[in-house]
From TrEMBL:
Keywords linked to the UniProt accession: Carbohydrate metabolism, Hydrolase
Domain of life: Bacteria
Pathway(s) where this gene product acts: Amino-sugar metabolism; N-acetylneuraminate degradation; D-fructose 6-phosphate from N-acetylneuraminate: step 5/5
SUPFAM superfamilies: NagB/RpiA/CoA transferase-like
Protein name per its UniProtKB record: Glucosamine-6-phosphate deaminase
UniProt EC number: 3.5.99.6
Organism: Billgrantia pellis
Reaction catalyzed: alpha-D-glucosamine 6-phosphate + H2O = beta-D-fructose 6-phosphate + NH4(+)
GO cellular component: cytoplasm
Gene name per UniProt: nagB
């Protein structure tokens, strides 16, 4: 595990963009697994800024998002399809045919989940998977108790997750109760993982994931098994880590993607 602890989220964004830029320089047609929520926003802003300066392009890349709410169409402002168009795909001019998300309004959601998994496998799987971590240790929408070998499927969202995400919805609209997500087994097949976390609210989840037992009750703990995982966190998210773990953190400039 490569652990990087930085002073703020702006530094996180620059280092995260460096890693993605190097991945694309090595393999321009990389398959990128993407995440949503507050954590990757600064990273996406940095990627867009580099694109506008001619330093970063997704022209040949293919993207697969981790998840989508069940019942929300791509035009709903709180859908992840809408989020990605606003924050990354639109500003970077990504061809919509190269950007993949689950269809949240599919008539047969379980069948859609299986088809989504099949589409991902058909392009050879994910080269670099971007991950956040939930307050309860979830990755994607794999809530506590998810099987560590799970595949894409329909999931029931926990009360913790729904409460955390309610801020993205109008006051008169509740967070959906279900979603389609890539499974933990699918995520772990990615050739490289980049896990981001920021803020003191995530400190306990980060500590449980990196130093606790590998258990379905903390889905993110499975990253301990991955042979090529970079964990990029700010100082606040690192506050619950043991001194031994903190001493293992590498200097940011020493990180290589190859």
């Amino acid at each position: 595990m490569d652990l990087i602890i930085v002073r703020n989220t702006e530094r996180m964004a620059r280092i995260g963009a460096d890693l993605i830029q190097r991945q694309l320089a090595t393999k321009p047609d990389s398959v990128l697994g993407l995440a949503t929520g507050a954590t990757p926003l600064n990273l996406y802003r940095e990627m867009v800024a580099r694109h506008r300066r001619g330093r970063l392009t997704l022209e040949r890349a293919i993207t697969f998002n981790l998840d989508e709410y069940l019942g929300l169409g791509p035009e709903h402002p709180a859908s992840y399809a809408s989020y990605m168009r606003r924050h990354l795909f639109g500003p970077m001019g990504l061809d919509p045919a190269r950007a993949h998300l689950p269809n949240g309004t599919a008539a047969a959601p379980e069948a859609e989940a299986k088809c989504y998994e099949a589409r991902l496998q058909a392009v050879g799987g994910i080269d670099l998977q971007l991950l956040g971590i939930g307050l309860n240790g979830h990755i994607g929408f794999n809530e506590p108790g998810s099987a560590l070998d799970s595949r894409a499927r329909v999931v029931c969202l926990s009360a913790t997750t729904r409460a955390a995400n309610q801020r993205y919805f109008p006051l008169d609209e509740s967070t959906p109760t279900h979603a389609i997500t890539l499974g933990i087994g699918t995520i772990m097949e990615a050739r490289r993982l980049l896990l981001l976390a920021s803020g003191s609210a995530k400190a306990a989840a980060v500590s449980d994931a990196l130093e606790g037992p590998i258990t379905p009750e903390v889905p993110a703990s499975v990253v301990q098994r991955h042979p090529r995982v970079t964990v990029l966190i700010d100082a606040e998210a690192a506050t619950a880590l043991s001194p031994i773990m903190r001493r293992q953190a590498r200097e940011p400039d020493a990180i290589a993607v190859s």
